[in-house]
Specification:
Length: about 450
């Protein structure tokens, strides 16, 4: 069993930035000039961290046991899962934190295995464990031999990273360690890397399967069989490659499975280009072109803000002009060196306002108040914030954007939002409950350059 790599934080590994307000050209220059200047928020509202991001990835895997080694609240991201999912939390108290909890961890592992019989178990080390310095690796090795299933450690970075995507990296490294070498390479098998499952992922899988390929989806919805096939794949391709960056790198490093770099298959054109590129890489005939773009002139020259995770935001930004609108601004959770090409493509067509920050609705609402867009397309949380400011909003998530159906879904939601706006239901109220003094300040009032 390969010991999982402990990847550095996104800030160190990819020059990641989690707080910024300005124009895209200035950020590109900063990223290209070397290590970027890190910024901090002197006031911050709740946002996802690397622990919750890692747990969100693990929760999508069928039959995988998860033990959260920490306080009860550390397992909150797993609470929404279905009944009977094989997970547990060691629920460390003050005594465990001070004196150590190797015994508690071992008992929890045995109990989880007896109740659920998972095919593998991941022990998620939380920031609490950094205090008592438990030797999780030793316990995992001992219990793996005793139970006869792989038991591996996933050590989150806690508060060292301000970018939740670091959790994707840590989870990806741990999951790659579960893939064991196989004899031979199957040229009809590809790995489709995705961290979220839904109708959009199924549609893309079907399009790839129509090429005559066996599509091994990993890790969302995957079980032990999918992990066993992963090393035999001729290549890997990711739905959102900025999320799956470490997983694809580790599959290449450990199993020599190469990776095909592609933009996400969002919209009719995006999905067609995605499938055609895979067909070419696997030496198969391209699919027939039977899908047409939709939504032409839907937006009627309206100014639109996109507020989505980075790779999704870049793809949706490309649809705004197709829909007859103008891109007024972009709000993303983080930016790193993986996004340079996307930033350059946007900067070549327009001068855009860029906001970087996960959560922070107080900051987002101030920024939107200054921009005054006609429409926001974003995550449910961002759309709710825009609605409070009486801005028409469309809520949509990553899987819902995938494929031709994703474009049609987005068009229908935009039309519905604009219709509601025309009828006077653009927002719940013509204003917000924020102090007028705050709304007069610059939206980046609390963003400061870090001094070391």
């Amino acid at each position: 069993m390969n010991k999982p790599l402990q990847p550095p934080t996104r800030e160190r590994r990819l020059n990641g930035i989690s707080a910024y307000l300005g124009d895209i050209a200035a950020l590109i220059a900063e990223l290209e000039s070397g290590p970027s200047v890190q910024r901090i928020r002197t006031f911050s509202q709740v946002a996802a961290d690397d622990v919750s991001a890692a747990l969100g990835v693990l929760a999508e895997i069928d039959g995988l046991g998860v033990v959260v080694h920490g306080a009860r609240g550390c397992a909150g991201a797993l609470a929404h899962g279905g009944a009977g999912r094989p997970w547990a939390v060691t629920n460390l108290d003050q005594r465990d934190t001070i004196l150590g909890a190797d015994g508690v961890l071992a008992r929890t592992l045995r109990r989880l295995y007896e109740q659920h019989r998972p095919w593998a178990i991941v022990v998620v080390a939380t920031p609490v464990v950094a205090i008592n310095n438990d030797d999780i690796q030793a316990v995992a090795a001992e219990l793996g031999d005793e139970l006869g299933v792989p038991v591996i450690e996933l050590r989150t970075d806690g508060f060292r990273s301000r970018i939740a995507a670091t959790g994707y990296d840590i989870a990806g490294a741990a999951l790659a360690a579960l893939v064991q070498p196989q004899h031979g390479r199957r040229h009809d098998v590809i790995n489709l890397l995705a961290f979220e499952q839904g109708p959009g992922l199924r549609a893309i899988t079907q399009q790839l399967a129509a090429l005559g390929l066996e599509v091994n989806v990993l890790p969302a919805g995957a079980g032990s069989d999918a992990f066993a096939r992963a090393a035999q794949a001729v290549l890997s391709v990711a739905v959102f490659q900025d999320e799956a960056d470490v997983l694809r790198r580790e599959l290449d490093r450990l199993q020599r499975v190469p990776f095909l770099h592609l933009p996400p298959p969002i919209g009719v054109a995006g999905a067609r280009q995605f499938v055609e590129a895979v067909a070419e890489a696997t030496e198969r005939p391209p699919p027939a072109k039977d899908e047409r773009a939709c939504g032409s002139e839907l937006l009627g020259d309206r100014r639109v803000v996109v507020a989505l995770p980075p790779s999704q935001a870049f793809a949706v930004a490309g649809l705004i002009e197709q829909f007859g609108g103008r891109l007024a601004g972009l709000s993303v959770d983080w930016i790193d060196s993986l996004h340079l090409d996307g930033l350059k493509a946007l900067s070549a067509t327009a001068t855009l306002a860029l906001r970087i920050g996960a959560g922070q609705p107080f900051e987002l609402i101030n920024w939107l108040d200054k921009l005054k867009p006609d429409l926001l397309i974003g995550t449910p949380a961002a759309a709710a914030t825009a609605t409070r400011a009486a801005i028409a909003a469309v809520a949509i998530q990553g899987d819902e954007l995938l494929g031709a159906a994703g474009e049609a879904r987005l068009v229908a939601r935009i039309a519905r939002a604009l219709d509601a706006q025309r009828r006077g239901f653009g927002g719940f109220a013509a204003g917000t409950d924020y102090n007028p003094g705050w709304m007069k300040r610059s939206p980046d009032w609390y963003i400061k350059r870090e001094v070391r």
